Fold each of these.
Amino acid sequence: MPGPGAFLVGDEERREVEEVLESGYISRYGSEEDVRFKRKVFTLEREFARRIGVAHCVAVNGGTGAIMASLVALGVGPGVEVLVQGYTFVASISAVLAVGGQPVLTEIDESLTMDPEDIERRITKRTRVIMPVHMLGNPCNLGRIMEIAGKHNLKVLEDCCQGLGARYKGKPLGSIGHIGAFSLNINKTITSGDGGLVTTRDRELYERAFAYHDQGHMPLRMGVEIGERSLIGINLRMNELTGAFVLGQLKKLDRILKILKDKKQKFKQAVCEGGIKNFGFRKINDPDECCTLLTVIFKDKGTAQRVAEALGTETVSQSGWHVYNNMEQLLSIKDKEGNKPFKRNMLPKTDRILERSINLSVGVVDPGLGAGFGINILSGDEEIQRRAEEFVRAAETSTA
Ligand SMILES: Cc1ncc(COP(=O)(O)O)c(C=O)c1O
């Protein structure tokens, strides 16, 4: 079951894609002189940059590619350390390894996002980047994180893959750090099946991210090289069909956010009306979050496990894809000396929070996130009430 944008695919996307099919231009590059060339990827980059409130955007083929291009833009490569939280999708970590850098894991706090209090002790002379991940649509505490980055002269890469549409202190996510990376995969706020976007205010970072995504080329080429190539790049390009589809979805973003806010509020209220006192909610760092999930945190692990079982879901710690403890490919890595840099239970605060937490779906229904139970963007009032009652019953009967 996908994210909210996928539920609402319709005429807007179809019209955009048909224009591309009729034009005959399906790559992002085409003839500037030919009026049939619709420049969908260029248009998306301009519109998305405007939406996020930054000067530049590069459209790419996925969130993982967006993070890789951002890391290369920031100068991450062999010997460079990047701080990233241990509760995130594996791509935030593997992107660092893929460009030759070294991920250093930090704890999360009760917002289930990066714990600012755990950053400074992990900074070494090799650290260059902090990568806060806006997990589950909840903005990280960017106020504190930007302050720490400034103090230590570090760059901030916002992993906004789960945070498209949210704001922190009035500013869109992806406009606050030095560079931001977004995903358009099927579980995200809006989607094109796959796709990604990089945002930045900085012209130099833009040129470097663009160059990495397109074999080292300068921005705005039209299929032929213009000028010298500044770095070794690869191909992470988005094609016109995808660009067109995203333009259709982008028109629906505000509607999606409004519906989710309303449904989450109703769901949470109905859960609270149950009067059960053995759980609380995750800390929300800004009310302008995405409202894609409602996360409950129980007082003890056993209760959380029993509730999850009764609902046919899992605690967040058991959900496979986003918890460092469950990333066997990460835990098996050995350095040159044969030591393992990533060990099970190396983040005790993160472990204690996640083993007591359950993600209830609101807009993102994703068992990979432990969010297999809850509501979705199409749920009516009756279903919201029924799901809330099922949760309350499970919480009531599962107390130790
Ligand atoms: C936090 C986070 N970072 C990165 C990614 C990678 O995005 P993609 O699947 O588009 O490559 C995801 C996708 O699930 C994500 O949730």
Amino acid sequence: MSVSKIIKQRRTVKPEEFNGSIIPSYDIKALLEAANWAPTHGMTEPWRFIVFSGKEGVQQFGLLHANLYKQETPEEQFLQKKYDTLLHKPDKASHLFVVAMKRGDRDNIPEQEELAATACAVQNILLVAAEKNMAAYWGTGGMCYHPALKAHFGFGEQDKIVGFLYLGYTDKELVEGFRNTSVEEKTVWL
Ligand SMILES: Cc1cc2nc3c(=O)[nH]c(=O)nc-3n(C[C@H](O)[C@H](O)[C@H](O)COP(=O)(O)O)c2cc1C
């Protein structure tokens, strides 16, 4: 399939729609390899991945995520339903990547460029996942942006978690993609 076809056909699939099948590790490595070819200003290559593998691995992430929520939420605000959602969200995933931007110390490379490069790395993953008929979901809910989460993985204050990538397969037909406005409405030609 051509790259432009894959770009248009790639769809977000919610982890609840996954079927529990496991992605072979050579395909997971192919996703990571694609990520590493993202464009990068000054070759800072700021993308970082923590990979949770297989049923036990993704459930370990769910437990960690839910427990961090419990630990960091004042008792009167704690919702058992939210805890359970975080705990079980990855249940049908095969792998889960925590994706981070590791901020370099080069003053001439602005933070936004290191975030942009990391987002490009994520898109590379999503496109290769689509090419390989995987289901993928980029989530930023729960504790994604909480300082306790990045600290847990050893990231510093200036680093950022950019999302959780849930990966697996689905038996469902992909939904029709849509965009609210055409690219013409977002473009000025001079
Ligand atoms: C930075 C970023 C964060 C996202 N976070 C979430 C999220 O927390 N929950 C969610 O349901 N979808 C999330 N998405 C996925 C979008 O909902 C999805 O891309 C959008 O609905 C368009 O659908 P498509 O990816 O199939 O084209 C996120 C996407 C991006 C780029």
